């Protein structure tokens, strides 16, 4: 249209303007979500206008070259799922172009139709058709790349889920075996104590048996609580909230106020008072609660100044929380295994061996990490690293 304007050839202007208006209509329909209507209108518009100009202009102008990129574009626009529509439109379009090229009627000739004008039109048609073909091929490559990327991502997701399933199945096998064993032990003790109580008439002995019975029931209750924490951590959705870190730690320490021996341990809380963290409160309770309970449970009360120090250090976009005690410590050969399900480094301890395993699982859910260092007989330090912002 620009070429015709500068060549003082104005007759095609109305047809060109109609084509532009229809093109804008196609863009509008596509933007409104009427994709099929936009496709059909686009195919009809480009075909009718191009066939019309092919019929009225001399062949040397090469308007028929547009038919190649139009036919390719139709297949791309309609996609493989509507391949029959594409073949139908292309067949009609091809017949139209053949008729337009070989019709016997005279073509438009005038003073403006010079060799220079024809050459300029041929060059213009070639450049526009080439550019259109490149855009169509680029669109196809981009579409194919996106589908391949999605497919590769889906394959990776499936592979990760398969790995998680294998891990879960292995953990379930171990869980059922160890859980049944650990639950039978206190139940067997309870049954034995009940038999002893049935055979005794001594009030003092009965009270002793009752106290022992309560202890076994408490162990069983603690074991069931650990299993509940494990199940909740595995299934419960993450619920990120802005939390006062010092307040969460204080709440956990308050829960152990009456824990046996807790009053003998000096607690040092070295955390900034108004420090906020974006995390899951339930999982933080599980993490901090298990580490603090272990610090009290495995403390060496024979030492002159037993302590538990909790401090924090901010590094980049993460916070490192240190739980340092001067308790009984952990032997070096046990350090690599303490986060394993049902593993107990201290064989004298009465526990399910799930605490630190649940801690590690909860920290993984929060996209954090946990480290431990210990010297047997001197003390232990757990370092929990958590992101400050929601992952």
Would you write up a description of this structure?
The two termini are 55 Å apart. A hairpin with a 2-residue loop joins strand 4 and strand 5. With 391 residues, this protein is α+β, with helices and mostly antiparallel strands. The mean pLDDT is 84. It is built from ten helices and seven strands. The chain is elongated, with a radius of gyration of 39 Å. The longest helix is centred in the middle third of the chain and has 85 residues. Helices cover 60% and strands 12% of the residues. A five-stranded mixed beta sheet has the order 2-4-5-7-6, with helices on one face. The chain has a two-stranded antiparallel ribbon with strand order 1-3.
What's the short version?
By secondary structure, this protein is an alpha+beta fold. It is 60% helix and 12% strand. The relative contact order is 0.06.
Helix content: 55-70%
Strand count, sense and closure of the main sheet? 5 strands, mixed
CATH architectural category of the domain at 238-391: 2-Layer Sandwich
Give the overall silhouette: elongated
Low-confidence stretches: none
CATH superfamily of the domain at 238-391: Histidine kinase-like ATPase, C-terminal domain
Indicate the CATH topology of the domain at 238-391.
Answer: Heat Shock Protein 90
Radius of gyration: 39 Å
Structural class: alpha+beta
Total helices: the number is 10
CATH class of the domain at 238-391: Alpha Beta
N-to-C CA distance:
55 Å
């Amino acid at each position: 249209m620009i070429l015709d304007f500068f060549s003082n050839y104005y007759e095609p202007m109305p047809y060109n303007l109609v084509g532009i208006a229809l093109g804008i209509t196609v863009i509008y329909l596509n933007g409104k979500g009427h994709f099929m209507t936009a496709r059909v209108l686009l195919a009809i518009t480009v075909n009718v206008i191009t066939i019309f100009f092919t019929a009225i202009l001399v062949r040397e102008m090469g308007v028929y070259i547009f038919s190649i990129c139009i036919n390719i574009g139709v297949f791309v626009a309609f996609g493989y799922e509507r391949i029959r529509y594409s073949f139908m439109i292309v067949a009609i379009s091809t017949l139209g172009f053949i008729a337009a090229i070989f019709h016997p009627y005279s073509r438009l000739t005038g003073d403006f139709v010079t060799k220079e004008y024809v050459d300029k039109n041929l060059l213009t048609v070639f450049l526009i058709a080439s550019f259109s073909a490149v855009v169509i091929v680029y669109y196809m490559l981009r579409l194919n790349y996106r589908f391949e990327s999605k497919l590769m991502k889906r394959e990776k997701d499936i592979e990760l889920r398969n790995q998680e399933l294998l891990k879960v199945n292995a953990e379930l096998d171990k869980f059922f075996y160890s859980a049944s064993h650990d639950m039978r032990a206190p139940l067997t003790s309870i049954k034995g104590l009940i038999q002893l109580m049935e055979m005794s008439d001594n009030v003092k002995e009965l009270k002793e048996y009752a106290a022992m019975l309560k202890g076994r029931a408490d162990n069983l209750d603690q074991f069931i609580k650990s299993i509940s924490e494990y199940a909740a951590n595995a299934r419960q959705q993450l619920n990120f909230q802005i939390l006062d870190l010092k307040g969460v730690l204080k709440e956990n320490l308050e829960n152990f106020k009456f824990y046996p021996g807790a009053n003998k341990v000096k607690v040092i809380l070295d955390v900034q008072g108004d420090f906020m963290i974006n995390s899951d409160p339930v999982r933080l309770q599980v993490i901090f609660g298990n580490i603090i309970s272990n610090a009290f449970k495995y403390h060496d009360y024979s030492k002159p100044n037993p302590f538990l120090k909790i401090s924090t250090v901010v590094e980049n976009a993460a916070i490192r929380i240190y739980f340092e005690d001067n308790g009984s410590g952990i032997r070096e050969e046990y350090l690599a295994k303490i986060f394993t399900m049902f593993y107990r480094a201290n064989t004298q301890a009465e526990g399910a061996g799930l605490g630190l395993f649940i801690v590690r699982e909860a920290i993984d859910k929060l996209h954090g990490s946990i480290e431990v260092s210990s010297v047997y007989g001197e003390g232990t330090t757990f370092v929990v690293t958590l992101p400050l912002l929601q992952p």
